[in-house]
Amino acid sequence: MQATAYTYDPATRTGQVLLDNGTPVPFDAPAFDAGGLRLLRPGQRVRIETEGEGASRRITLVTLQTF
User: Fold this and answer.
1) Is the distance from CB of 36 to CB of 29 less than 8 angstroms?
2) What's the rounded Cα separation, in Å, for the pair 44 and 4?
3) Exposed site from 4, 33, 39, 48, fewest CB < 10 Å?
4) Closest to 1 (Cα-Cα) out of 53, 39, 55
5) How many CB atoms lie within 10 A of CB 1?
């Protein structure tokens, strides 16, 4: 799934992405670390993997979108 980086805190390695429908979804440090990234800037296009649905949906991976 693709999304757009919305917020990112380098101190905690947490933040939020915006899904294409505008829904913000938070991610935690383990999801950020799983993608092998060192930095994330708002507006960057990312690829995410999630588990769960609705309010229990959580991001398990955040990485840069490559074509």
Assistant:
1) no
2) 6
3) 39
4) 53
5) 13
**Cβ contacts of 3 within 8 Å, gap of 6 or more:** 17, 18, 19, 20, 25, 45, 46, 47, 48
Q: What are phi and psi of 17, to 5 degrees?
A: -120, 160
Query: Any residues with CB less than 8 A from the CB of 66 and at least 6 apart, and which?
Result: 47
Q: Identify the DSSP state of 53.
A: -
Each residue of 7-58: pLDDT tens digit? 999 999 999 999 999 999 999 999 999 999 999 999 999 999 999 988 888 9
Q: What's the distance, CA 64 to chain centroid?
A: 9
Closest CA to 51 of 5, 6, 17, 1: 1
